[in-house]
Specification:
Radius of gyration: 18 Å
Number of helices: 6
Shape: elongated
Largest sheet: 2 strands, antiparallel
Order of helices and strands: HHHEEHHH
Strand order of the largest sheet: 1-2
Helix content: 55-70%
Length: about 130
């Protein structure tokens, strides 16, 4: 099953980001990480929903559940980028890069790294 974080609501994505950052988190920890958090029971309900959708799994630690992602963050990034590429850029990686270069404030080191990656892609025939 292909899952994309883009298919989640804003609040669900926020919760997933907190759990990715922490690696594993309880409902209380997730709630504490949210700006303008909903009630504790709403956080628990959303975590159960995310588990039902296959994005999270849990383990029991005493009386609390600890949630962790079922999808590696790098895998989730690729899926999200693929969806973004198709939705907003008609599948054009060039347009994504053009937009990033025109909108992002990149340091010389970041520009050098991007240049190296482009050269590497050329050498590898991509």
């Amino acid at each position: 099953m292909t899952r994309s974080l883009n298919l989640l609501s804003r609040r669900e994505r926020q919760m997933m980001n907190i759990i990715y950052r922490l690696g594993e988190a309880s409902a209380k920890e997730v709630r504490e990480g949210l700006a303008d958090p909903p009630s504790y029971s709403a956080v628990r309900a959303t975590l159960r929903l995310l588990e039902g959708k296959g994005y999270l799994e849990h383990r029991q630690d005493s009386a609390r559940y600890l949630y962790r992602p079922t999808l590696a963050r790098d895998t989730a990034r690729v899926g999200a980028l693929s969806s973004l590429l198709q939705t907003f850029f008609e599948g054009s990686a060039e347009q994504v890069v053009v937009t990033l270069l025109s909108e992002a404030e990149l340091s010389e080191a970041e520009l050098d790294r991007l240049s190296e990656l482009i050269d590497q892609a050329r050498r590898e025939g991509r």
